[in-house]
Design goal:
The protein is mainly α. It is built from two helices and no strands. α1 packs antiparallel against α2.
Length: 66
């Protein structure tokens, strides 16, 4: 999987060479994120989505009897 992300990072850099300044910055940022994903290590060290601020609301308001 690391090689997959390294390849994507290189493609983004190659495209950035020919892009306008705004697109270049975005492609280089994307390449950097792919580089981070390509590094082996524990899953916890990789960026995870932030935890929910509030628990999800209850979908059913009926009694809990089965």
């Amino acid at each position: 999987m690391e090689e997959f992300y390294r390849g994507f990072a290189q493609r983004a850099r190659d495209l950035a060479e020919k892009a306008d300044p705004i697109t270049r910055r975005r492609l280089l940022d994307l390449a950097q994120r792919y580089d981070l994903k390509s590094r082996p290590g524990p899953v916890s060290a990789r960026s995870m989505p932030p935890p929910r601020a509030m628990p999800p609301t209850v979908l059913f308001s009926g009694t809990s009897e089965a």
